[in-house]
Design brief:
Number of strands: 16
Number of domains: 3
Order of helices and strands: EEHHEEEHEEHEHEEEEEEHHEEH
Structural class: alpha+beta
Number of helices: 8
Shape: elongated
CATH class of the largest domain: Alpha Beta
Helix content: 10-25%
Length: 315
């Protein structure tokens, strides 16, 4: 079924869209319209910026008025609303908020984004959890990883964070409980990762010379009888990076049901570990001319703290 937008719309560019390209601005406001159709509208002159024609790469400025003609769009089902209990949990998980950013201590089991078989993730749920017109997610965490998740509240803040992650200037540090007794001190894994294998309908990541560069540093901080707690610095942000690099060291992340197997994993489950023990506990964005230094830490979830106590009693 289709619907006809009845009349021309005039949309004023707001502060969070300042500097955005015209084509990307239109794609956001014409959700469901193919890209090819959007570019045809621009080329034909039906889209105007302050009454003048503009090219797709035109950078918009706050306060400008964009004319959007009536177009036909595919009718979409209304986005599902997360349960109220989840929204309340997310609101209570907000660790920090200012005029630029909102930082969430994401619970394990919640995906960063909705997708196939997942009606909503943190990015979608947070739109219901607060009164934010603009709140894009700046990076991702695995679904089963808990910890710091960064949202931007303005476009300049989003671009600053994305550049810091892309260029390796953002410092991301994790706590990971690894299976087995760790010998010696810190270890680095500098090994490329490639997504090239399917198991049970899930894509797995492996080491591969033709993959994307990835570098992790594991620093042991607490040793138990058959497990080791490590702080992990990652100097790249690849999918499942810590999990695959830990496996390469023959110390898989405790509770990892995708990459971790063996007797030690069985013992972890018998002791009551019901989730993967991987937590993004520290995040830092270095200062720029426009933004101050941003540094925050997220405490371990109570169930992980309790599990460490049980491990300590056995050591």
């Amino acid at each position: 079924m289709t619907q006809l937008k009845p009349q021309v719309r005039y949309v004023v560019v707001k502060s969070h869209d300042d500097g955005q390209r015209l084509d990307n601005f239109l794609l956001k406001h014409l959700d469901g319209v193919p890209k090819s159709a959007v570019y045809r509208l621009i080329r034909s002159g039906q889209v105007r910026v302050d009454a003048g024609r503009a090219k797709p790469d035109r950078r918009l400025a706050e306060g400008e008025k964009v004319r959007i003609p009536p177009v036909r769009t595919a009718e979409k089902d209304e986005a599902p609303r997360p349960p109220d209990a989840m929204l309340a949990r997310l609101r209570s998980a907000v660790l920090f908020e200012d005029e630029h950013y909102l930082i969430l201590n994401k619970p394990a089991g919640l995906a960063s984004h909705g997708g196939s078989g997942v009606p909503f993730g943190a990015a979608e749920a947070m739109k219901f959890a607060g009164d934010h017109e603009f709140l894009p997610l700046c990076h991702r965490l695995d679904r089963d990883t808990s910890g710091l998740l960064l949202f931007a509240k303005t476009r300049p803040a989003m671009l600053r964070a994305q550049a810091a992650f892309r260029e390796g200037r953002a410092q991301k540090r994790y706590l990971a409980l690894l299976c087995g007794r760790w010998e010696g001190g810190a270890r680095d894994v500098d090994a490329a990762l490639v997504k090239n294998r399917i198991r049970g309908g899930e894509r797995l990541v492996e080491l591969g010379e033709d993959g994307k560069p990835a570098h992790s540093r594991f620093v042991p901080t607490r040793r138990f009888a058959d497990a080791t707690l490590c702080e992990v610095d990652i100097y790249s942000g690849r999918m499942h990076q810590i999990r695959v690099h830990a496996l390469a060291l023959e110390h898989p992340v405790a509770g990892d049901r995708k990459y971790g197997f063996g007797e030690t994993q069985d013992r972890m489950r018998q002791l009551g570990l019901k989730r993967m023990f991987l937590h993004a506990f520290s995040l830092r964005l270095p200062a720029t001319d426009e933004f101050p230094d941003l540094k925050l830490q997220a405490p371990l979830a109570p169930e992980l703290e309790e599990f460490l106590k049980r491990l300590g009693q056995r050591s």
